[in-house]
Amino acid sequence: MSALHVEARVEARGVDLSLDVESGGALAVLGPNGAGKSTLLNLVAGLLRPDTGRIVLGDRVLTDTGTGVDVPPHRRSVALLAQEALLFPHLTAVGNVAFAPRSVGTGRRQAHREAMRWLDAVDAAEFADRRPRELSGGQAQRVAIARALAARPRLLMLDEPMSALDVTAAPAIRSLLRRILRERDRTALVVTHDPLDVLALADRVAVIDGGTVVETGSVREVLTRPRSAFAARIAGVNLVAGTAAADGLDTDLGPVHGILDTGCRPGDRAVAVFSPAAVAVYTDEPHGSPRNSFRVTVADLEAHGATVLVRAAGSGLAAEITAAAVADLVLEPGAQVWFVVKATEIGIHRSA
To answer: Distance between CA 346 and CA 337 in Å, rounded?
Structure first.
């Protein structure tokens, strides 16, 4: 498979993107709604032309505004698997999959053989003669995957492929996609909001916010040491941004004391990251061993398995405590409390 390089700016959408996907790698693209994720997919697919930019897939230049190159979508060797299967309603499953090789000139019989091979590869051969209306959501998505692969793309793009599936179908499709991406080292872009998709399908992550890439790294690095607010929400951790100081971080919430990463120096832009489980909640500010205290207003309480997530208004901070502690503290929305975290529980990392 081929490496992907994207440099593109679309002024009307406030987008200025720069990212790379290694050959045979799967890059998960995260970000809030309106951040620019769909714009990225449309740029790579050739459905949107940037004001300025260059997009290269392997040794092929797909877009270059400087030289006027703009390869049409059907010649880019890029396949997009969307949230909905989007199968042709008048064709059977095998007819839908055969459409891909037929569209590039393959004969009818050979296209049928290839379609059956791909249906078998996604465990959907038994549905070959069914029309889309006769398929469940999971079955239709399997056929859509087979159709995408039958086009022999050099890049596979997945746009929230599990979001329209029910909870019973999604795990099976996720497992299938993982096998498909791994077995032949397929290069892929995976747009998702689900951390399970990131963990199962990707080896690297890019976070887009405000039209730019604000964070990149391995899956483990981004989910355990996030440097952006959105990645922190996905990872389920607290994040406070500020400027590194000699013994911690200067922030809008006040000084935060923690353990600085090697290479994080005073004056650097940095973030403090800590788990909600590391946060204790008090009605009065405690004193004693080195710790961080944040005066907050409770915004809401959320059941979180056997514990309760106490979310603070404004700051985005959260504490994870027992239901018994919630009762003892008489916590409710609007209550004024202290979130307290030991310095040893906070990691401070350099940010972009």
So the answer is: 20
